[in-house]
Amino acid sequence: MPVPLPTTNELVSVLKRTSLPTLLVEGTGDAQVYRHIEESLQGLGVNALHCGGRTTLLELFIRQPEFSHIKTVFLADRDMWLFGGIPHQYSEVVWTNGYSIENDIYSGSDIEKIMTTEEDAQFRQLLSIVCKWFAFCVDEHMSGGDANVSVHPNEISPPGTVGLDSLLISKYRFKEPDPRTYDSIIKNYTSHLRGKTLFQVLLRFLAASNRESKYSKSNIMELCVKIRPSSSTKDLLDRLSAKLNHQIITGSS
User: 133 partner at 20 to 30 Å CA-CA among 75, 126, 157, 176?
Assistant: First the structure.
């Protein structure tokens, strides 16, 4: 049975009782990445607190005056705000550079070099199809529609097929995306394509049943974080560190 997520009120109570500088992050889904960030900020004595999602994290950001005795820094995924902009009331949150934390650790890493030449060609073919689907989702979102960005690549383009699945097109009333949206996403897929989807595309090849050496998402994320970390990851760590250092030096919160 899943563990119930903490409520905003419960987390505020926790924060009122602590004296440690606290890094507030969205959830436990990317725990190993957050653990790496927490370890990297160890010199500042930071404790990471998982909020169970972005909605709760942003509610806590608004309620900061209730735990103003501690130093806090908030880290959140941009998600669709990558395309529409960050609301001004959240400008002091530290936002990922790309769509999500997965994008920041992937972008600029060498992880795609693990693929063979044949795998790489198939990866790029699937990537172009998935980016077309995601560009449609972005266009829908920007026009006020309800886009389903969490569709798995196997549903977008089932293994052994080429192109968008006909059932998908019918189910979601797919329309060809604006070419400018598609171009922007395919050219910047490491930062613009939803991170979870990007890893799912990569895993179709690196976790294939006929592959001698198989990788899990956890393996790949660890390699991205610890072997030649990306410039986006370094930038994120620098911004988190600078925000906490500023609070420590000025005594602000």
Answer: 75
Mean pLDDT of 10-32: 88
Please spell the DSSP secondary structure of 11-42, one letter per residue.
Answer: HHHHHHH--S-EEEES-STTHHHHHHHHHHTG
Q: Which helix (H) or strand (E) holds 49?
A: strand 47-50
Q: What is the DSSP letter of 117?
A: H
Answer yes or no: is pLDDT of 32 > 80: no
Other residues' Cβ atoms within 10 Å of the Cβ of residue 238: 10
Distance (Å, whole) CA 187 – CA 210: 30
Topology adopted by domain 8-100+231-251 = Rossmann fold (3.40.50)
pLDDT digits (tens, 9 = 90+) for 224-251: 888 777 788 888 888 988 988 887 666 6
Q: State both tokens at 227.
A: 């072997």
Q: For the chain, how far is it from start to end, CA to CA, in angstroms?
A: 38
| Contact by Cβ (8 Å): 137, 143 | no
- Is it the case that residue 27 has pLDDT exceeding 80? no
The domains of the chain are located at: 8-100+231-251, 109-227
- Residue 203, classed as helix, strand or coil, is helix
Helix (H) or strand (E) holding 75: strand 72-76
